[in-house]
Design a protein that fits this description.
The chain is an alpha+beta fold. It is about 40% helix and about 10% strand. Bound molecules: zinc ion (2 copies).
Length: about 160
């Protein structure tokens, strides 16, 4: 798998740059998020990692994810629930978050990319990046619910 090789190369390079070791845990956790192609939460990543590392604890996965996040390899994504999700797709993109099922969908938008970080935000800290998060009800949930409650969201 080409993507797997690319992900591994990226992980190796970033860990080396930061003087960190390429551990099996870091490999499995990063590949789990990268291969998922979506935005898994910590327990979902844990499930995936356990297939190859049966003894790994949820806490280890949790700490590894935040370490990878610090290194810029994954990004935490807020969801509608209390679960943090992680994204390995680091190219600039935006999210649609479903308030019902918690799913996070990616989308691209050149016009949203152009929005500048306001001065007020810089007074709070050092900004690394930004993205737009849209909230609503996804099409899957709309269809399941037997029709939309707030009209059509098309267009
Ligand atoms: Zn949904
Ligand atoms: Zn995403």
């Amino acid at each position: 798998m080409k993507n797997r090789d690319k992900a591994l190369a990226r992980l190796k390079e970033t860990l080396e740059t930061n003087g960190l070791r390429m551990t099996q845990q870091r490999i499995e956790v990063y590949l789990a998020v990268a291969a998922s192609g979506c935005h898994p939460c910590v327990s979902e990543v844990h499930e995936m990692v356990r297939e190859n590392l049966p003894t790994v604890s949820l806490d280890t996965v949790y700490r590894t994810l935040w370490k990878l996040s610090e290194l810029g390899l994954v990004a935490p994504v807020s969801s509608s629930g209390d679960r943090v999700r992680f994204d390995a797709y680091m190219r600039r993109h935006h999210h649609f978050v479903c308030a019902r099922c918690g799913a996070v969908y990616d989308f691209d938008s050149p016009s949203l990319d152009e929005i500048r970080i306001p001065e007020e935000a810089w007074s709070l800290g050092c900004v690394w990046n930004s993205h737009m998060e849209l909230r609503g009800i996804c099409l899957g949930c709309c269809n399941e619910g037997g029709g939309t409650e707030e009209g059509h969201a098309e267009g």
